[in-house]
Design a protein that fits this description.
This protein is of the alpha/beta class. 40% of the residues lie in helices and 14% in strands. Bound molecules: pyridoxal-5'-phosphate.
Amino acid sequence: MAANPAAYSSQSFDWAALAAPGVQGLVPYTPGKPIGELARELGLTDIVKLASNENPLGASPHAIAAAQRALQECALYPDGGGFELKAALAARHRVDPDCITLGNGSNDVLNMVARAFLGPGGSAVYSEHAFAVYPIATQAAGAEGRVAPAHAYGHDPAAMLAAIDASTRVVFIANPNNPTGTWLSAAALRDFLTDLPRGVLAVVDEAYFEYVDEPDYPDCTRWLGEFPQLIVTRTFSKAFGLAGLRIGYALCAPAIAELLNRVRSPFNVNALAQQAAQAALDDATHLARSMAVNRDGLAELQAGCVKRGLSFIPSAGNFLCIHMNRPAGPVYERLLRAGVIVRPVANYGLPQHLRVTVGLPQQNARFLAALDVALEAELAGP
Ligand SMILES: *Cc1c(COP(=O)(O)O)cnc(C)c1O
């Protein structure tokens, strides 16, 4: 008899009881709502998505051309070692290629860290309001997640140090953090790394590195020689505009990279992504434009909030976490009906905030106009 999914579900077997202990309590990652999904649900055609911190300018045209060329060879496996891209990244960061681990997005690298260093009996420390992938990667590996209380929505290094104990193998720090946009200064992060017990790895996630315009913000890739337990992650998903191709990387000591490589899936980074990433790295003009669009757009959004009497968490990224002065869920729903997708962050312990990605000028204006209508309607009652 052919397999019938309905027959399986009617057996009411407790499959969850068979899952690995860490998986039983896991809540899956909630991504930003895709444009196609909102279009299907509400029959809308004119939709702006400011929900996943993507680059509103898109990818570099050179990166797209490189991916198109790579497509011609898609019958072949990609270079599983990523030789050429690693060489380009090594030159750029002035490290040995052995220090580099390529990932299918930097998420993949975060999972490799968890699989290589976290397991039952181990723990990882991360901050309240920190990026949701850290608890998922930790728990999926069977380890315990320790949440350090935040300070002013941002990472509190002292609280993170205090949460470390003999079981702790990894601390995750997003600098800047998503969804809050908060960042640690060079001095604060350097002190933290100096005080970190030996044998605890520090993952500094620099997904938004290219956007940061703060004078005291550190480039932790420069500290790799000094702090042997440091793992710095970067991604091509944000400023480089390649989120759909899934590619990111980690920089760390070769001995740590060798361990990450043991748990890496073979051919984890596809050939299109490798070629596009290399072309994107070389397109300084597109990157500079992306940074300029973000700087101006972030200022527009911030000014829009001030004008409306809405507070926001100061952000160093390409997004702004705005306080709605009321439960944010209904405002989010109203924005959806106006064709504007932003990101609710109640799952991050921020039930009155919405996170808005910086868009092009007309997208930012459309968000602010839709927000006015939504907030007015909320004031008027249901
Ligand atoms: C977006 C993001 C990433 C990058 O994810 P990819 O898997 O590289 O697309 C990593 N860390 C943080 C904090 C992010 O916001």
